Amino acid sequence: MLLQIEISIIIIAIIINLYFSFTNIINRYRFTVNRLFALISFLGAILSSSFLYIILFPDSENLSIAGKSSLGTLLLVCILVFCLSEIYPRWEKKTSDWFIILSLIPGIVVCLLTVFTDLIIVEIGYDESLRYTLGILFPILPATFGVYFIGSYSILLYKYKYLENESFKYQLFHFLMGINVGALCFLILTVIFPLFLNVTIFRNIGISLSSILLLIVSNYAVSDDRLLDFKQFYLKLVYWLILLVIILFPIYSGLEYYNWLIISKYSIPPLGIAILLSLFPFLLFRYISPQVEKLLQKRYKSLERAFNESLEEITNITNPNDKREDWDTILKNTINSIQTKLKIADASLYLYNVEEYKFSLSYGFGDAIKIYEINEDSDLALCLKEHKILIEKSMLFTDETLSKYKESLLNIFNEKSIQIALPLFNHEKTLIAILLLGRLQNRKPYLTDFLSLLETYRIQLSISLANSIIQNEMKVTQIIKHDKTVVTTIKKKIIPKRLKQIDGIRISSFFLDNSEYGGDYFDSVRIAADKLGIFMTNTSDTGVDSGILALEIYSVLQTQMTKYSSPERLLNNINRVVSSSRFSDKYAQASYLVYSSSSNELKFSNAAYNPLILLDVDEMNFQELDVDGIPLGIDLNFSYRSKNFRVRPNTIGVSYSNGILAAINKNGENYSIERLKKIITNNINDTPTMLIRNIYSDFSNFVKGTELLNDASLIIFRIG
Q: In terms of pTM, does the model score above 0.70?
């Protein structure tokens, strides 16, 4: 039994080591920290493999070589971990190269002596457990282990004490806690048990278990040291560990009981056993797993609820008159919500003054942020205009793209007690206001979940302020006279003349602007070099409300295009913005798909819109990909889902608006999807551009002589 557990844990350790090694090489190779961690993981796989060899072949004549190699590899891993601690985190000024090289030499010498001489380990045998014959220099080996381990830990403690990045110090503390747990597991099972209790059977298990734990924690630490949340990460580990235990022990007990029945000459049909064993995981993930996950996500749900309440407060911004007291009341009702709901201690909002070319303090609370105006050409304003993102203080240390403004902004943030700067843009992407935030009331740093939700708040506040300004300008200048002009202007502004593309997918579209009161909006967004998002929505024909709704959706899509590679997360975010908006109480049907050229995977999420049509050219088989969902803007707390679909090269996809099917010819017949499919089938080898031309020609001939009342939009893409 113990041997089976030992072998299983070692095999798991090998797999995890190799996975982390290749992941860091493939996805993060350009960073020295990740290359070094990839090497450590690979050596960890070799180390675990040597343990497995010793267990499986205890009588091998190469046992001493394998045992010495495992000790040497373990020491080498410890040495490289010491080097990793010297250069981690990657954005911090690292230790001098000459010092790193010098620190390696003693450990490598001891490593070579261990593997290639008898001075440290003379011989290794196996008698129920490994038996070592120690050499005259053996004390050097544990001393070297201790020096490098304590050295690694001491370096991290030193960095924790003196790092300027306070947010990362908070994460580094929790990283050290994870290391403590792994080290404690190692010490108990590999040092205390053998030396003080003469129990050596857990040595290999202890090394493998502690290495797995330390690997998982360290891999998260080097995955992206700008966006760490170790508390949430540990909760996820606990969640999966609980599920593993709940699944493993009942199934194992059931199999043991089944074996006992067989030995006792009782029998249960294999089908019955299969049903029982499959029913248990189903019930677990259906009923127990959501409850465990809900418990572990209690902190995030509470935070999300507070943000939703704060978003609702933003709806107090309405169309103000051009009077100072009206703006004061509106801003007070709006900004105060982040004090009461989000527990932020200090905040100041600065509105752009067109006449004076600066941002003037319009409202605030708390007394820590002592800035009364921000010049238009200041580094803070220029940085926000250039990057168009929320800037949190720790990002000035970790985000390389902000390096140009690092020193000047750090001085401002430190002197004026600023933690976060939120830029607020209008629909023209012009900076109209700046919101500066101080510390949280509990004095803790801002975590990634908080910042993610704060970005949604920023977008909604931007939309609300921009809409208020637009409506005020409309009253003063009387530029907008009726709904048609508004909608036409908005359509020309937001609907792209050409869709964005990435390598691995070709895409084309056509759009018929048939409605002057609203209708379709579609776009494509380049999420990453290998990811493309394709979005389509129908905001209905309701005049100005439809136009404002389209602007809100456009703002979220354009400002968060690189943030959400999962389509359901983007729809959830748009839904929060639309549901909490005062400027439009309408809803919108929409669909969003994300295609990854690196994995040939397509993710699709739907908000009561038309299904995605896919044609596998090799199989000549059409299928419709759909996901249940309600229109955006109906239920603030609704959670959208997505489906993953692996597509083969040469697959053709079609996304279409309701106006395609609503088109009627002179005979009163509707244009059908089957007609569209037939055109694609007859021109199967054409590019998306040629297919669009053929369909547009057929569609135009079909509706010739009739008046179309609805916008008609069509997107066709081809994989490969």
A: no
